[in-house]
Amino acid sequence: MMKRIWVAMIVVLGYSCGSDDSSDYVPVNPYTNISATFGSAVNPDNLYNYANQTIPNYITKDNSGGNPITDKGATLGRVLFYDKDLSSNNTISCSSCHQQANAFSDTQVASTGVNGTTGRHSMRLINTRFANETRFFWNERAVNLETQTTMPIKDHGEMGFSGTNGDADFSALLTKLSAIGYYKELFQWVYGSEEITEAKIQLALAQFVRSIQSFDSKYDIGRAQVANDAQPFPNFTNQENQGKNLFLAPPVFDGNGNRTSGGLGCAGCHAAPEFDINPNSGNNGIIGVLNGTGIDVGNTRAPSLRDLVKLDGTTNGPMMHTGVITTLQAAVGHYGTINIAPGNTNLDAKLRPNGFGQQLHLTAPEVNAVIAFLRTLSGTNVYTDPKWSNPFPN
C-alpha cells in the first residue's frame, strides 16, 4: 500500500517513474502550446504591463466598470484580437480592421470582411477606457465594450459566425477555439478552466482594447505643466495656444446662426482632456451611407480626437462613419458651415443655434490654428508598443 502511495507521489511531482534519483526530475510546462505558437511574444511568466500603466492625474474618467484590466486578461485579449481563427474562413481578425499602425483604425473607407465590407468606417480604438460615453459603434447599438467585442464576430459580412445566410453560429466558434492547444492553456491560465465561453472572450477582448492608451502627446506634456486647459501651455507655439482657445471657447451666435464672436465650441462635444464624445450628442450633420441609398441619422458616437493623425501629420485613415473626411482641414471646415439636410431629425442641438445650421465664418488663420492644436493630440508610443502588437509569427 505504501509503495503505491509513493509511486503516485512521484508521478504528481513530475519525477520519472521507477527512479528516486532527483536528477531524473522532468519539470511540467503548462504553457507548451503557448510557447510553441508565440515564442517570446507571449510569455506567461513575464507579462507586459497592462494593468498599471501610467495615467496622467488630470485624466479622471474610467469606464472599466466591473471588468478592470489585468495583465493576464489583456494578454489573452491580445491573442484573441489578432487571431484570424475568430473568423469563419480564418482570414480576418479584429486587427484586420483596427490596425496598430493607424491608431487601431483602417486606411480603407470600408474594411474587408469574410463576406463583403463593413457598413461603416472602422472607428479608431484610442483611449476607449477614458470616456463618459460607454456605448459603442457609431450608432451606439452596443450597450458597452464587452457586448461590442463579439458583435463583429457574429456579423455575416465581417467575421461570419452569424448563424444566418449559411453561416455557422457562435457556438461553432467556441468549439473551434476549444480544439486549439494554446487556447486550452490560455483560458486555464486566465480563468482557471479550459472552458471557453462568449462571456470570457468578451471580458478579455474588452480588457485589451481598454488597455490601448495614448498620453505621450505634445498636449500632454503641456497639460502637465499648468493647472487647467484654459492656461497657455508653455510648450505650445502661439498658433497652437490660439487653436486650443478656439477649440475650448463656445461661439456666440446671432439669431440666424452666424457666429459673431467667441471660439468654435469643439469642446462642447469633445471635452478636454479626454477629447471623447459627449454621451448626449446628436449626429454631426454627416448622414450618408456607405452601402445602398438613403440617409443614416442615427450615428452619434465618435472616437476620441486623440491621434487623428500621426506625429508627421499623416492621417490615420479617413474620418467620420462614411470616411468622407480625409484631412483635418476638411474636418474643421465641415463644422464651419452646417446645412440642415432634409430628413435629418437628429442633428446635434449645438450645431443648429436658434434653429439654423451654424455658420462659424472661419478665417484661414483660425482654421490653421485649430489644425495645429489637433496635431498636438497625437502621440508616438501607441503605434509601436509591442504589448499592443501582433503576437502571431508572420
Automatic annotation (TrEMBL):
Chain ranges of the Cytochrome c domain: 72-181, 238-378
InterPro entries listed in its UniProt record: Cyt_c-like_dom (IPR009056), Cyt_c-like_dom_sf (IPR036909), Cytochrome_c_Peroxidase/MauG (IPR051395), Di-haem_cyt_c_peroxidsae (IPR004852)
Superkingdom classification of source: Bacteria
A GO MF label: peroxidase activity
Signal peptide span: none
Protein name: Cytochrome c peroxidase
Main location: other
Keywords: Heme, Iron, Metal-binding, Oxidoreductase, Peroxidase, Signal
Keyword Cell division: no
Annotated organism of origin: Flavobacterium sedimenticola
